[in-house]
Write a structure and sequence with these properties.
three-stranded antiparallel β-sheet; 4 helices; 93 residues; 25% helix; alpha+beta
């Protein structure tokens, strides 16, 4: 029987990140796993009032961390589990 607890998923949260190019982020997770993820295609496909601003590289570069999730000033955020999955796969689904 598994004894998993909520703390077992804390490694999925982003500890730090930095912009390494237009739409490219180097992500470091709480367990120190690091990966560079290219968000170019993902950002260009965002729609709607929250997603569309992400197509602008200046707006995209305003990303910040909100409790381990990547977020932007307009309220858009990405679930840390999705970020971890993309980082481990080396690409965004």
């Amino acid at each position: 029987m598994s004894t998993a607890t909520i703390s077992d998923i804390s490694h999925r949260k982003v500890k730090t990140f930095r912009l390494t190019g237009p739409f490219i982020l180097s992500l470091r997770f709480r367990d120190d796993f690091t990966a560079e993820v290219d968000f170019s295609d993902w950002a260009q496909n965002r729609q709607g009032p929250l997603g569309a601003p992400l197509r602008d590289p200046d707006f995209f570069s305003q990303a910040f961390l909100d409790h381990g999730a990547l977020a932007w000033p307009n309220g858009y955020d990405i679930d840390p589990a999705a970020l971890r999955h993309w980082a481990e796969q080396g690409a965004i689904d």
